[in-house]
Amino acid sequence: MSVSGEVQASEESLPHRLTSKTSFLSLKLYVVIGILLVCAVAVFLAIFLCVWFSRNSRKRKMRVKHSSGMIPLVSKEIVEIKALGRDVNPEKVEVKIGNEDLKEAELEVGVKGGNRSGESDVSGGSRSDASVDPENIGWGRWYSLKELEIATRGFAEENVIGEGGYGVVYRGVLPDGSVVAVKNLLNNKGQAEREFKVEVEAIGKVRHKNLVGLVGYCAEGAQRMLVYEYVDNGNLEQWLHGDVGPFSPLTWDIRMKIAIGTAKGLAYLHEGLEPKVVHRDVKSSNILLDRKWNPKVSDFGLAKLLGSEASYVTTRVMGTFGYVSPEYASTGMLNEGSDVYSFGVLLMEIITGRSPIDYSRPAGEMNLVDWFKGMVASRRGEELVDSLIEVQPPPRALKRALLVCLRCIDLDAGKRPKMGQIVHMLEADDFPFRSELRAAREKDPNPSRADVSTRITHSSNNGGGGEIERSRWR
Ligand SMILES: Nc1ncnc2c1ncn2[C@@H]1O[C@H](COP(=O)(O)OP(=O)(O)OP(=O)(O)O)[C@@H](O)[C@H]1O
């Protein structure tokens, strides 16, 4: 046979072979080939999917590890920032904790870690490179003692801002030029490093424009330090009680701005976080001010953080004399109502310019709360206003503020308003007048407009605004 004849014979035999039966279940060859092809594709797909899944799950695991590391992203104290309560404006929330948290953490690693990595030489240690240290990943960062030493010029005397119950506070400048306040915590021996980090993480995640932001911490050996954003205009106590000349720069409007901002910060702690955070030490020296008189509440979370067995710390946890609610002082029972009481005292201090306890005053005026209640009860509310305020507040605004004070210090903690309600009361132009008008109309259907005002009297035995009597106040 010729070559062309052989080719032709083989071509002719191919379809024949394909349709011929095989020994495998007597299936035809093309069916067997088809089955084999399908099996091969299936195996290939299975291998591909396995590889893809395993890669992804490894990535996921790495993310969780990096995000939490030694420190849980969310501590047991502050689990999650949930949808805010009705009284808290969502615009005030700067950081959301929960699913968004991871993104936040990753973002910070990218920005902060990346920026700082080149600064390790300046700060004197490779630990300053946040991009390679998983412990630096999260809301802020871990600072080495060396870094903070450099930032504060060796914790120099001239960089001391002040000293409080928790320790000395220094002004520091980080290599990137940002100014911070470094709080060198006293008496932290009872605090295990890991526990310290967990609690600090929790505080660090809380972000609000009226709360001082925590940017990082240092835990090296026995040293524990907190690094805060620097608030550059002193604290409210200094402005209220310091030497400011014949007239205070804190006008009535500025004082109300400070009161409202403080209330918003506390409302966020109470109503915007789950579980809520009780400050426990609301007072004027813990209200820091910026150049535009925006208030920032400091030291929140510290009572919990430093709540060790040390008696010194325990004393600190009890709050500050003059601001502490009666039920907290007598029973140690603590809830956000105690903060509301302290806020009431703070508001009295803002209005009057007087300290909660002032032994330099006559006996009847030493205790601000008692004196304040007595003055309101005897209708001498206008005399309560700080004489350093050059322009007197409108009577309506003053009455509003006085009423809020009295409601906050109600002896019955359950009757005190929530911080969110306080924000509304202080902001609302018509508080308390709409309800007063209604009450007045019910009494007298045709009152002259000028007659309708509010008289707030307070029976001396109820301790607060429980028996606030509202009627006409000419
Ligand atoms: N982030 C900050 N920015 C600027 N100054 C600060 C900052 N934190 C604290 N200070 C200042 O440091 C000083 C000490 O503050 P600290 O909070 O330790 O004590 P305190 O509030 O005065 O008293 P206590 O510890 O009893 O609450 C205060 O003058 C305070 O205004």
Automatic annotation (TrEMBL):
ATP binds at residue 183. It is an enzyme of class 2 (transferase). Belongs to the protein kinase superfamily. InterPro entries: Kinase-like_dom_sf, Prot_kinase_dom, Protein_kinase_ATP_BS, RLK_Ser/Thr-Kinase, Ser-Thr/Tyr_kinase_cat_dom, Ser/Thr_kinase_AS. Coiled coil: none annotated. Its EC number is 2.7.11.1. Pfam families: PK_Tyr_Ser-Thr (PF07714). It is found in: Membrane. Residues 155-434 form the Protein kinase domain. This is non-specific serine/threonine protein kinase. Signal peptide: none annotated. Residues 112-131, 440-474 are annotated as: Disordered. It comes from Carpinus fangiana. It is a single-pass membrane protein. GO terms for cellular component: membrane. It catalyses: L-threonyl-[protein] + ATP = O-phospho-L-threonyl-[protein] + ADP + H(+); L-seryl-[protein] + ATP = O-phospho-L-seryl-[protein] + ADP + H(+). SUPFAM superfamilies: Protein kinase-like (PK-like) (SSF56112). Keywords: ATP-binding, Kinase, Membrane, Nucleotide-binding, Phosphoprotein, Serine/threonine-protein kinase, Transferase, Transmembrane, Transmembrane helix. One of its GO terms (molecular function) is protein serine/threonine kinase activity. The chain crosses the membrane at residues 29-53.
